[in-house]
Amino acid sequence: MKNVKKIVKVNIEHCACYCNADVYYWLVMSNNKWIELPRIEKNDYEIGNLYHEYSFKEEGKIELLEFREKMGDKRDENTPSGFEIERIYEKKIKDFTWNGKEVE
Question: Do the beta carbons of residue 62 and residue 34 sit within 8 Å?
Fold first, then answer.
């Protein structure tokens, strides 16, 4: 992505009876200016819930995706559940365009 030095993602979790999170993304420019993308809210971390995330493409496209996952049968030590997680549904909700200076 033109003029973007890095992408910063910050999760802020709030846990009481159940957990939810606010997920913030910033594009850090080559001149160190930070551009914030719209915040994503995640409610309750249960396998099978709908979630949202950004997907960054090289040609300056940013996609907001909606997805659902399920727990697989295979063990995976790199996941919080200890089992492989499989994405069973994914849909593009919105497209953003990075023009080198701002998100449109």
Answer: no
